[in-house]
Amino acid sequence: MNKETSTDQIGLIFEQQQLFKYELRSSSAEERIKKLYKLRALIESHEDLIYAALEKDLRKSRSEAVISEVLFIYGEIAFAIRHLRKWMKPRKVGRSMTNFLAKSTITYQPKGTALIISPWNYPFQLTMSPLISAIAAGNCVILKPSEHSPFTSAVIGEILTKGFDQRELACIEGEQHVSEALLALPFDHIFFTGSPAVGKLVMQAASRNLSSVTLELGGKSPVILDETADLEMTAHKVAWGKLINAGQTCIAPDYVLLPKDKQDEFVNYYLKAVKSMFFTGDGQLDRTVYAKIINQRHASRLVSLITNAIACGAKLREGGQLADDLTLSPALLIDVRADNSIMQEEIFGPILPIITYEDQEEALALINRAEKPLALYIFSNNKSNIQYFLQQVASGGACVNDVLIHVSNPHLPFGGVNGSGLGSCHGQFGFKAFSHERAVMFQSKFSVSTLIYPPYAKKNKVFKLLKKWI
């Protein structure tokens, strides 16, 4: 692992990038694509180190790391390479009556020097994904990966050091005070992925320099089932979405809402699905496919959530045991009330509360008590019910009859609303996050605007004519 970067080094790198960003401003699509190919080659040559680091940080299996971390990034790179020329091309827009002889376009300028602060839960994917967008948009970048996933952070630092000049791309490691030192600098854009609480601090720091921000946060993403849902299929999908990475996923299903008469059947299917995916034949939790909790502090928090939920009247149907190696067995809570303590914060772990409802209005009221979620999951075969929840619940994204998978489509924006995030990323949406959309107008030799110059005494007829045109 690399040593912590000093404050002096941070200042030097930032100043170098502030100068170098002007050289990148006019970089061509071909130059940026070449860098994306280089990044892909560096990742390929470091794959074994990446998988080993993810195993050390999170005990993430190689298969899960391939699916949720590395292949995702290869897809992002390929998509950007395929579409970048089109994204960079100035976009012609229409004319108004007051400038009908002019030509108007929207162009995309690099914002300049960007800071990317990434989290520990998907430490490779959630660092590289915004980096790809920043490179595609022509920016200089300082990466600050999480100190809680130090092995992956070190590999990312090695990749960038081998392939890029720090005047363009740099990786800075360190504890919280390093992040604070970075946030004090006047970056042109800050891209942060993490908790809403820290997101507020990032936004506060950005406001001092009027830096634009993209905040990818989290929240309590609900799963809503109605009477028409296929319970066996739903339970299997929810179990996978909840327990991949031991529930440490920002868009993981946080809790399940279902009709009261469906609870027992769903519980049986859910437990069956959990056993089939994450347990061995002799009934032991399979640590080769089930990740650990990131650290003791987070593990203790999750255990407290279970304890407090039970104290508030919930029943622990299964799991919830914490082992010395920070493995928390998949926990299922039933008879959870809306005012239970576990419903007051994002769980971010392998604990699934189940809440029953009498009608759609009751379910909707419970969802809308919390901040707008990052994701909404609806399981139903009734189009009217699906539209009801899509229209009545504000969320960053939504997925019908599946979980998580919407994040894999680069044609879709990924982002939250208010408490679950600000701005979007992935594909062209990520490119735009790191770009300034600039209005450019080319005026003709004759301009209508000359008709409204002073003196105004004889312009009343012109004004009346313009009013009719407008």
Automatic annotation (TrEMBL):
Domain Aldehyde dehydrogenase: 20-439
Gene Ontology CC: cytoplasm
InterPro entries: Ald_DH/histidinol_DH (IPR016161), Ald_DH_C (IPR016163), Ald_DH_CS_CYS (IPR016160), Ald_DH_CS_GLU (IPR029510), Ald_DH_N (IPR016162), Aldehyde_DH_dom (IPR015590), Aldehyde_DH_NAD(P) (IPR012394)
GO MF assignments: aldehyde dehydrogenase (NAD+) activity
UniProt-listed GO biological process terms: aldehyde metabolic process
Domain of life: Bacteria
Keywords assigned by UniProt, alphabetized: NAD, Oxidoreductase
Catalytic site: E216
Family per similarity comment: Belongs to the aldehyde dehydrogenase family.
Protein name: Aldehyde dehydrogenase
Organism encoding this protein: Sphingobacterium multivorum
